[in-house]
Design brief:
Layout (H helix, E strand, L loop, with lengths): L3 E9 L3 E6 L2 E6 L2 H7 L8 E13 L2 E9 L2 H10 L7 H7 L4 H10 L2 H4 L7 H11 L4 H4 L14 H13 L4 H14 L6 H12 L2
Antiparallel strand pairs: 1-2, 1-4, 2-3, 4-5
Length: 207
Amino acid sequence: MISEISGKLKQKKDTSVILDVNGMCYEVMIPPAVMKNLDTAGGEGAAVSLKVYHYYQMDQSKAIPVLVGFLNDIERDFFEQFITVSGVGPKAACRALSLSFPVIAEAIDNGNMALLKTLPGIGEQKAREIVAKLQGKVGKFCLMKDRASQELPKIKEDIKEEALNVLVQLQYKKGEAGDMIEKAIRRNPKVSSCEEILNEVYKGSKR
């Protein structure tokens, strides 16, 4: 089994990269969360080293080898945990992991169904299964660095403070209100005003 691959970046696609390893070219699938960080590695010709999850995809009567790439062992470990959920295979997991791993891990640990349902291909039932299977088992992944920094928009603090003050006036505790605001921003990174944040908070409370 292939566990690691290093080479020069030959081509970057939407969901995969082509690595040139001493003249042999390998296509490696990359989850969106990993691709965001891989973008900083440089362009064509840049040296890239990936930890690999290697599996075989069955297609009629033949088995097709597939490589899924990660930047470190911890990311690969999280992926391997994620696919232990019934009905979540490697291909589905690659598509679903669109937010940074620590953000997803925290959502699992907190039972944040609303955030999990924003992941591609994850509906209500699958989100419940993910929480049931992995809650309490993903603590170390919550500690990964750069958590949320890639996902949360640079919303002005005064807008968040305004939304916080409104919720406090509505009899919510300050800590609870702050948590509701952060979750609303994660669900909808495009919010840009106090009113939009509060509308997203309200939508989240109905889920």
